[in-house]
Give the backbone structure.
Amino acid sequence: MSVGQPVPGRARAPGRLELHLVTDSAQCGDRGVLQTARRAVAGGVSVVQVRDKTASAREFLELVTRIADTVGDRVPVLVNDRVDIFCAAREQQAAVAGVHLGQDDLPAETARRILGAESIIGLTASSRAQLAAADSLPAGTVDYLGVGVVRATATKPDHPPTLGTDGFSALAGATTLPCVAIGGIGAEDLPELRRGGAAGVAVVSAICASADPEGSARALADRWENG
């Protein structure tokens, strides 16, 4: 299978953007990222974004493929930042669905040409200018935006100014693309974010640092659904 071709059975955009798990190896601790992801998906996580800023390329590829082989038949597995790792995992027939890019990563248009039309591309945005730039891209370049940070978070010490739920809602209302809220989000934020236009939320600590990732994911999914 060549890069740019879809994995059999994998649809283009995630059908459910409600609850993203963004992995953090340090916070998962001895339990490990793979077990955390497995339990979180059992609890209702709808997208798994594999993120590890400290791993070598080889280590990151192994982590991505193991997670994709474990939960990729149930939820979309996205690779954080690294289009090259996505391509390598796809060559190994791993069920990776796409990538999530930051503003300093490979341009989304370039990534789309490499990944092909069937892969998912998410893009981080934290200002009206970044949202406007995303909206100006050719249709189908980006599938959703990760908008934040909503609250200060230790998982991203260099984060942009916090938006709060009102600031997120203002940005979400300024773009035609689905917006997933990220950054220090807790269960108490979910009803207001959903009312404010969020297509979903992405969490790190709320699941990775939990002693019960399945239970925490279930509680978040229930709060999203029922307020």
Summary: The two ends are 43 Å apart (CA to CA).
